[in-house]
Amino acid sequence: MSESLLPKNIAELKAYSSAKSEKLTGTTWLNANESPYAKEFQLRLDNLNRYPEPQPENVINAYCNYAKLNAEQVLMTRGADEGIELLMRTYCESGKDSIALFSPTYGMYKVSADTQNIAINELSQSLLLEANVSEICDCVGDAKLVFVCNPNNPTGSLTPVSKIAALAKSLAGKAIVVVDEAYIEFCPEQSAVSLLQDFDNVAVLRTLSKAFALAGLRTGFLLANANLLAAVRKVIAPYPVSTAVAMIAEQALSSDAVTQMRRQVSILNGNKARLETLLNESPKVSQVLSGEGNFVTLQLRNKDDIDAAMQQGTIMRPFTLYGDDNWLRISIGNEQELEQVRLWLEQPE
Ligand SMILES: *Cc1c(COP(=O)(O)O)cnc(C)c1O
């Protein structure tokens, strides 16, 4: 009955299937690009009768210190996912405006656009990587937000910062270039944050879910110039960040914790190089997309090999890419987890 009340765009939505939405049983979790390193935090919860700070000052200052920005350029959100949604709610008019994205890419841009009845101009990663900036801008048309996932999930490919700058320059006054840097800690020299100095139509999405090992906290940051963010600040919920989350985020951004994060990143990058070697040598694998980020995406010769891994408790993320359903994304785990993948790869057919 209530279905007849639904707007058309909502009635037609397919529920987003995230890595965690299916009830899988396993022992080795390599399907959601999480960190293998859990940390402990201290909580003091004697003031929960009070509303939290809308934007907790200590967390904002710590992130400014880490990203080399000032406070008016940083907005704390409930994960990068909320940053994506907020940009659309702020800058796109439902039923009228559009966004551009470069497939294959992160699935939430489409989900957020579909739920808000915003049209999608679906372009390709190969256009982004191979075409020149004026061709790309022609294809972008009148999209208001242009999502560049960098490095791109799930292909790992990188768009040079110089190209992002040229895109922002060409699109000035017409569109915002949204650079999703969920994995940038794995290749920090590729960050587009320095572009905020020169462009008022660049926004950068960040998260504590990947290299910072806090997927369970639900914390991200939207970085952009003061004017761009001022509009978003009018749209965000009044108290988006709970007191408990703010306390943990502050500890996660202390200088010791950042040093620890960087140490873990270098271990994970090393584990990744070892995994790539194993994959390149494996008869089960026909193609490896080697790129940046704490994951590797590969094509299997035989899709049924995924079932064997699942049965052994090693959970990885199957994908359909370029029309083929035999792709797999493996998150980079610790040594023991890598060993489970090696055992699977070396099993006879
Ligand atoms: C994981 C991921 C996110 C989501 O981050 P949250 O902060 O956990 O919401 C955003 N973008 C990309 C490309 C991701 O892979």
CATH homologous superfamily grouping of the largest domain: Type I PLP-dependent aspartate aminotransferase-like (Major domain)
- Give the C-level CATH assignment of the largest domain: Alpha Beta
Largest sheet composition: 7 strands, mixed
Kindly state the mean pLDDT as a whole number?
Answer: 95
Short structural description:
With 349 residues, this protein is α/β, with parallel strands linked by helices.
Please characterize this protein's 3D structure.
The protein is of the alpha/beta class. It folds into two domains: 2-36 and 257-345, Aspartate Aminotransferase, domain 1 (Alpha-Beta Complex); 57-254, Type I PLP-dependent aspartate aminotransferase-like (Major domain) (Aspartate Aminotransferase, domain 2). Helix content is 36%, strand content 19%. It has twelve helices and twelve strands. A seven-stranded mixed beta sheet has the order 2-8-7-6-5-3-4, sandwiched between helices. Strands 1-11-12-10-9 form a five-stranded mixed beta sheet, with helices on both faces. A hairpin with a 5-residue loop joins strand 9 and strand 10 (295-300). Helix 3 crosses helix 8 (226-235). It is globular, with a radius of gyration of 21 Å. It starts with 7 loop residues before the first helix and ends with a helix. The model has no long low-confidence stretch (mean pLDDT 95). Pyridoxal-5'-phosphate (PLP) is lined by residues 33, 79-81, 106, 149, 153, 180, 182, 207, 209, 215, 220. Pyridoxal-5'-phosphate binds next to helix 3.
